[in-house]
Amino acid sequence: MYAMPDTETTDAPPFVPTDVALCIDPEVYRRLRPMLRHLCVGMIDWNASVRLITPSDEVGSLMIGPIQMITYDQPLWPMSHLRSARQRRLQVLVDKLVDRPPTVVHAISSGSFEAAELLAERFDVDLVLQLTAFRDVDALTSVLVEHTDCFIASSQPLLDRLEDAVSVSADQVHLIRPGTLAGPGPTCFSKPGAIPTVLCAESFRPGCGVHHLLRAARTLLDRKREFLAFLTGAGPMESELRKQAHALGLSAAVIFAHPTGSAERIMVGADIFVQPSMDTALTVGPIHALANGMAVIAVGGGAGDYFVDGVTALVLRDASPEALADAIERMLDAPDFAIQLANGGLNHIRNYHPISAMAEQTVTGYQTLAARRRTYSLNR
Fold it and tell me: Quick check: 374 and 366 in contact, CB under 8 A?
C-alpha cells in the first residue's frame, strides 16, 4: 500500500516551442493504448508538435490531427552482437528526421530506449525515458542513465524501483501517472436480480494467474454461488486454459471472450474485476476497471499504485485459488462493500489519474528541459 502524495503545483517555465519525437513500441502500445491516445491529444492542446516514432504500423491509430508517424525497422540482433549492423539500420530513422530535427526525444518504454538514445545523441537534444514496467527500470544501463536528461515514472512503485536501482538527482525524476476518464458512479451490482459478472483481462501467458482463477471458480460453484466469469485475455496459454476450464466443468459459468471493441466498453455494467497475479507492468485493464466503477480484487505488490486495500480494491497477499474464491464470495455476499470500494476507486482515478494533469506535466517537463538548455547555451 502506498500513501498518495498531494498534487504539487509549480510555476510554469518560459514557453519554448516543443517538437517531440514520441517513441512507442508495439508492446507498450497494446498495454496502454487509450492512455497514449489521451497523451497525444493533450500534447496537441498544449501546442506541442508530436511525431510518433515506431517500428509498428498499428501505432498509426494515434495519428490524431497534426500528429505524424515515422516507422523504422526494428533491429533483429541483440546489442551485444552486430552492433554496427544495428547502427546502420537505425541510421535510416535518423535520415527521416534530419530535415526537421526534434527538440526532445521521449521513449515510453524500454522497447524504444535504444532508438530514442540514438536520436537524442545524433540531434543533440534532451532525452526523456518513461518507466511503465519493472522491466523498464531493469533495462537501464549506466551509459543510458548518463545520457538521460529526465525520467518519468508512471507510478510510485516504479519511482521507488528507479531510485533503488540507479543514482539520479531529484530534479531528473517526475511522477506522472497515466490519465483516463472516470465514470459518473459505481456500476457494480447496479442491476437488482441480475447474475453477478466477474471480469478478468489478464493475458494468457506463462505465469499468469488465470489458472488460479479457474480453480477459484470451481470452488465457488461447489459453494453454490451463482455468477458468470468472462476471460477477455489472449496469449499462448489459451488452449491450455480452455482445457483446464473444460476439465473443471466450468463451461456454464466461465466464458472465454475476445472483445472486438475497446477495453472500456466491455467493463460497463460488469460487477467484479479480478487481477489474479502481481502485475509487473502497468496495463489498461485495472485502471479502466477502477475508472468504470467496478469492484476490484487484485494481488498486491505490482507496478501500479492504484490498488489501495480497503479503499480502492480488495488486495490479496497471494493469488491462491482459495484466496481468490474467498474474495469473490465476499463481494457477492456484501454488495454494499463492493460499491464502497468502487466509489473509492473512482475517487482515486479522479484525483490521481486525470488526463489534463498527465498532458500538462509532460509538456511542462519538456519546457523545463528546453529552458535549461537555452539558458546553458546563452551562458557558455
Answer: no
